[in-house]
């Protein structure tokens, strides 16, 4: 990342000298420097190459300091904090989020702990609709097969036990185009509507977690509208700070994104957008507090005594991202370009491929591993990840991908293992070179997943 402090601001000479030919210039901005970036993330373990920003994100030192100030305000005088300061500050954070995502009303924005909480909120509402007879038994919820595990469990907890059916759309991977995804999604909707049933909810990932692909969410939402799907929930856990987010453009009924993954907030905080409609008043936080019935945004802003500080630092986070040239858009662009560059470097070195075209990658990319490592199961992927962490100081997720129409005995020479690399502002080229060399060393030494002496943690 090439950023530095600009020259000193230039000011016009005094008008008293009679020189009217000078035009006033605005002061030039001084953007964050590389050394300042290193200072912001100096608390990271220096022995580890962190190529997994996607799972837990990263919080700069200045934001950690801001969070501590809010925590101390509470601890110093909790009664005054909870009675007079907390709710106005959460409302301020919601207002900032509303503008960032282009929502119409601040009432459409609730702040919750994470995308898992948001999924529980939405699927609780759907489960109640089945249980109360507003949705018919056997009507469907359609979801992608690579939906986050917590979303699948929420469907199990709230929907299937209330009589709803689940249609799983299997997406191709590696994937070459949005059209492949759209075609499979249409098949899933058709299956959900068979035998005069209705699709009551479609769950669409904006960025799938594993394998990682940017899904054409706007196009899929439009198809849902055309096909009479009752409501659409876009699970965009990885989106905010990684890709452009405009909730009016996407047009979903529900949209959630974490703010601690790619938006530099401390864990954990997310927003849940619910488009204003008659259903809004029927959606509730699963933790029932004294605010029940006052709207989800107010219910979510008070779920009992807890640490709310991660929800209060959003103004400081906006200040942090604006220290970078181009702000959040500039960060997104540089992260995307750099992760594609590093993914290409790894794929060339290993003689493999990227899992999707560049325009279907966010700030993460899937890179094929050499087939000679023999990643032949989820357990193999977990074992290889542990080995890279323990022996090489590399933190990177590993994915096992069963080949299309493949059989285990026919997998010789096929790419069945992928790493998901991230790029965030603290990463440097050496992080990726360390991964490149580690994998090449394993191949040279004839190591396979079967021979790795690791403890599998499932």
TrEMBL record:
Residues 88-278 form the Aminotransferase class V domain. Keywords: Pyridoxal phosphate. It comes from the Eukaryota. The keyword Cytoplasm does not apply. InterPro entries: Aminotrans_V_dom, PyrdxlP-dep_Trfase, PyrdxlP-dep_Trfase_major. Residues 1-23 are annotated as: Disordered. The keyword Protein biosynthesis does not apply. This is Aminotransferase class V domain-containing protein.
């Amino acid at each position: 990342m090439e950023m530095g402090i600009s020259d000193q601001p230039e000011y016009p000479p005094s008008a008293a000298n009679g020189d009217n030919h000078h035009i006033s210039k605005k002061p030039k901005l001084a953007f964050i420097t590389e050394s300042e970036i290193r200072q912001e993330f100096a608390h990271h373990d220096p022995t580890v190459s962190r190529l997994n920003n996607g799972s837990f994100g990263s919080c700069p030192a200045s934001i950690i300091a801001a969070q501590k100030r809010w925590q101390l305000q509470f601890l110093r005088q909790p009664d005054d904090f909870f009675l007079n300061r907390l709710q106005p500050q959460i409302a301020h954070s919601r207002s900032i989020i509303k503008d960032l995502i282009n929502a119409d009303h601040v009432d459409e924005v609730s702040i919750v702990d994470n995308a898992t909480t948001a999924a529980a909120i939405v699927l609780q509402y759907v489960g109640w609709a089945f249980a109360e007879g507003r949705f018919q038994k056997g009507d469907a919820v359609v979801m992608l097969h690579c939906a986050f595990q917590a979303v699948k469990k929420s469907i199990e907890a709230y929907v299937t036990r209330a009589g709803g059916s689940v249609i799983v759309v299997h997406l191709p991977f590696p994937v070459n185009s949005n059209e492949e995804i759209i075609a499979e999604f249409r098949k899933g909707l058709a299956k959900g509507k068979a035998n005069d049933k209705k699709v009551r909810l479609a769950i669409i990932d904006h960025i799938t977690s594993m394998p990682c692909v940017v899904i054409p969410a706007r196009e899929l939402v439009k198809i849902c509208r055309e096909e009479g799907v009752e409501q659409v929930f876009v699970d965009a856990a990885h989106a905010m700070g990684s890709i452009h987010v405009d909730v009016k453009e996407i047009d979903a009924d529900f949209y959630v994104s974490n703010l601690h993954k790619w938006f530099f907030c401390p864990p954990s905080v997310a927003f849940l957008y619910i488009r204003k409609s008659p259903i809004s008043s029927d959606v509730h936080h699963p933790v029932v507090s004294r605010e029940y019935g006052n709207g989800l945004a107010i219910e979510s802003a008070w779920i009992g005594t807890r640490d709310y500080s991660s929800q209060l630092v959003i103004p400081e986070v906006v200040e942090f991202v604006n220290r970078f040239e181009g702000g959040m858009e500039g960060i997104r662009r540089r992260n995307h370009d750099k992760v594609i560059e590093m993914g290409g470097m790894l794929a060339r070195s290993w003689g493999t491929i990227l899992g999707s075209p560049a325009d279907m990658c966010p700030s993460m990319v899937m890179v094929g591993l050499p087939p000679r490592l023999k990643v032949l199961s989820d357990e193999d992927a977990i074992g290889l990840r542990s080995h890279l962490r323990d022996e090489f100081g590399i933190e990177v997720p590993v994915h096992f991908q069963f080949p299309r129409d493949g059989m285990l005995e026919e997998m010789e020479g096929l790419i069945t293992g992928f790493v998901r690399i991230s790029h965030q502002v603290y990463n440097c080229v050496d992080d990726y070179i360390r991964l490149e060399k580690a994998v090449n060393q394993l191949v040279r030494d004839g190591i396979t997943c079967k021979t790795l002496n690791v403890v599998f943690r499932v």
